[in-house]
Amino acid sequence: MEWEEKAHYETREGDRVGLLALDDGHWSVCWSYADPNFSIQMISFDPERAQEVFTTARDQAQAREGLRYDSRQEWLGSSL
After folding, report:
1. What pTM was estimated for this model as a whole?
2. Are strands 27-33 and 16-22 parallel, antiparallel or unpaired?
3. What's the sign of the alpha-carbon dihedral 32, 61, 47, 5?
4. 29 touches 53 (CB < 8 A)
5. What is the pLDDT along the chain (80 residues), one digit of tens a residue?
6. What is the structure's pLDDT at 14?
7. Of 1, 33, 6, 40, nearest to 20 (Cα)?
8. Which of 5, 6, 45, 64 has its CA 20 to 30 A from that of 21?
């Protein structure tokens, strides 16, 4: 089994979120939190729900703090 990244973004605060699809049809959203949290959370969803959760999280992060990177576009600020 192999995960394929479908989309990802990084907030200006350094949190990273990815939308992943497993080759058996399962999808997940993975959050990697920056300082001070330093944790990872991965939740499995059906494909439609995963896309909805990812899009909602990205829209909220963009409105709240802005994005450093969005896989729909080029780098929006500094890179790692």
Report:
1. 0.84
2. antiparallel
3. negative
4. yes
5. 889 999 999 999 999 999 999 988 899 999 999 888 889 999 999 999 999 999 999 999 999 999 999 988 755 554 43
6. 93
7. 6
8. 64
DSSP the chain: --EEEEEEEEETTS-EEEEEEETTS-EEEEEEE-TTT-EEEEEEE-HHHHHHHHHHHHHHHHHHT-EEEETTSS--S---
Q: Which among 22, 42, 20 has a CA at the least distance from the CA of 31?
A: 42
Token code pair at residue 34: 């920056």
- Could you give the CA distance from residue 17 to residue 54 in angstroms, rounded to a whole number? 8
The single-letter code of the amino acid at 53 is: V
